[in-house]
Amino acid sequence: MRRLLLIGIIVAAGAAGIAARQPASGPPQTAELVKVKDNLFVVKGGGGNTAAFVTSKGVVLVDTKLANWGERIMQQVRTVTDKPVTMIINTHTHGDHVGSNEFFPASVEVVAHANTKTNMEKMPAFAGDKAQFLPDRTYTDQLTVGSGAERIELRYFGPGHTNGDTIVVFPELRVAHTGDLFAGLGTPLIDTNNGGSGVAYPDTLKKAAAGITGVDTVIPGHSDVMPWAKFVEFGEFNAAFLSAVQQAVKDGKTPEEAFAGLKLPEKFKEYQIGRGQANVTAIYGELKK
């Protein structure tokens, strides 16, 4: 009996040791479907928010999350329609938004901004035979696909998160998916390696807020659905951030001093500034070129 007890203790200790060595958990391993408006849904989990727009001809997906999430996306889509995916729109180049492009048949048309295609071509995930999952169609300023109540508008307003950020507008539903140009309420990731710009960011957001009309709901890249007014406010936040950094440069402060002394209007108190130091440094680099 004591021997069995000892074996049990050893096995339990070994299991605990294995558990202790497991890596920290990553993104949630389950997907969740949220209805936004008629025929428009968001699949959450596994990276960026994936929008699923059900049309008469099939399903249009906006972004495909991390690699190996294609089946989980489709498990959620199948709960609302049995129609096939006919188009994928990639809002930008990052792997948590384009990672499962390869899950879908080559017959599915992939659409993105021209700069995004160029950025994706540099990714190992699209090298060699995987190049077939790159965008088939690109645009530079604006592209309309579909018609009538199923019309979708792809809009580009300038560099920000990257140099190819697409805002996807569903005019009849008064909804826009912003990708990571507006990921959520906080300092954005400025990917200078893919053409992102902290200096241009506020102006890009301002142009988008002025150029997109008739929208009342926004699907951010990584956050819950919000009123469009939050996108407009996000532009004001980035403008205030840039202004504070520009003043710090004029005052001769280092990037570290600029971030330490950063003060923004009280209206932005709910904003997370976890990337604040990185963004200050990026803006300093741009201003001093």
From TrEMBL:
Q: A single Gene Ontology molecular function, please?
A: beta-lactamase activity
Residue span(s) of domain Metallo-beta-lactamase: 47-222
Q: Which SMART domains match?
A: Lactamase_B
What residue stretch is flagged as signal peptide?
1-15
Q: What class of enzyme is it?
A: hydrolase
Could you provide one GO biological process annotation from this protein's UniProt record? antibiotic catabolic process
SUPFAM superfamilies, per the entry: Metallo-hydrolase/oxidoreductase
Its Enzyme Commission number(s) read 3.5.2.6
Keywords, alphabetical:
Hydrolase, Signal
Keyword Signal attributed: yes
Quick check: keyword DNA repair in the entry?
Answer: no
Family of this protein = Belongs to the metallo-beta-lactamase superfamily. Class-B beta-lactamase family.
What is the recorded name of this protein? Carbapenem-hydrolyzing beta-lactamase BlaB-1
Gene assigned in the entry = blaB1
